[in-house]
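--- STAGE predict ---
source: upstream dedup step, 1 unique chain passed
mode: sequence only
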Amino acid sequence: MTTPEEAGFRIDPPLVADERTMLDAWLDFHRGTLLWKCEDLTPDELVRRSADPSTLSLLGLVRHMTQVERGWFRACLAGEDLTPLYSRQGAEDADFDETDPLQGEADIAAYGAEVARCREVGAGFELDDCGTRRGEAFSLLDLPAHDRGVREAQRARGHPAGAHRRQRRRLTSIDSR
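--- STAGE serialize ---
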């Protein structure tokens, strides 16, 4: 599995920069944090649910964020006609509900590829350029800064912390026996 450092993720954002650089850097920081939380976990640990009856798992978050990136940047901002990667009618939460430990590396690679593609898409727009979602206009500036890209990434970043700690506690208790 590629580490966040090898993938170019989890780089501390600059403390002083222009608005575009700062927004892009913080979004990448949150993206990298999600990958970092998955680092060194086995496939079974990646799909382990954080707490029953929740279907939340680290791999589910990776899959969800893949769809979030794809949806906001490519479909809503760039207007690409895309089909969902995981969700479908009758299985709207398939990104969380249908994780497979044998697909973990592929799902993480898909996330990395989607992030790279979304960076390219975002770079082609100015911060005040607009896209639409469900008939509502939003600017690229709104996407990462407000209740979309960064907030979604922050929420995803917070969820794996608990799941990651649970995995580490379990491993520590096994090692100390």
